[in-house]
Structure prediction request, 276 residues.
Amino acid sequence: MSGFYTPDGRFLATENGRPVVGAKLYVYLAGTTTPATSYKDPALTVPNTSPVIMDAQGRGVVVLDPAHSYDFELQRADGSLISSQSNIVVPASSSALSAVSAALSAEATARVADDSAENAARVAADASLQSQITGLAVFAAYDLTGSMNSVNGTTPAAIYKSGTISPSLAGYNGTTGEITIADTGWYTFEGYLQFTIVANEGSSWVTIQINGSDYREVALARNENSAGGASITVRQTFSVSLGLTAGAVVKFVASQQGSSGPTQTKGLWLHMSREH
Prediction:
């Protein structure tokens, strides 16, 4: 057809690529010669004349009811035929298109919200699972390595590292070796007791003290030699996990005894880790 029609109702009549001034557009219901009403506004309240007369630039406004299909016939101002076109299907009006667009937008927004909620729930679940895994597997480790020599008799001697430790441990006393527990939880203590017995018989042991009272022995090493036997060096490792409450005071002490002649403790080592 020698003309351009857009869904919003704009029509341009052309012939050989040039606007046709005063062109006449006849609109019929598709497949008939029954004139169909066209309109000047999207609300379909202001009807056009029939035929619709194009202006000096060959333009006109032809808004159609999308409930029907149409046939067009375009004539020159003198009534001679330029062209015709059958079975024109008109898309929904701009207002209807806006409603559809709004509905689609609302649906898309709802989907985004649902996706966001689902993703947030997934992230929370992952975080919860990770927290459980972390609680089982990750430790904050503190090196409380100490070294003691010539600790004789049954007088307990604390195992500890003088001064500060790294990383810093709240509640650690670098003078007495006492550890005041800051948070309720599970704590793991590991270490070893290494000592040398230089005469016939001797033993050495490590004891946990909680709040100033002996709790349990965690390492015991003993050597029994016949009279005049050679000296012997013994290392006893230990590991213990304790459920401790905030404010509890923990201390590790070493004792040793030799029946005839000195025993000598060396290389007392202690490592503490806390489950998160």
Notes: DSSP finds one helix and 17 strands in the chain. The longest helix spans residues 94-137. Residues 133-139, 147-152 have pLDDT under 50 and may be disordered.
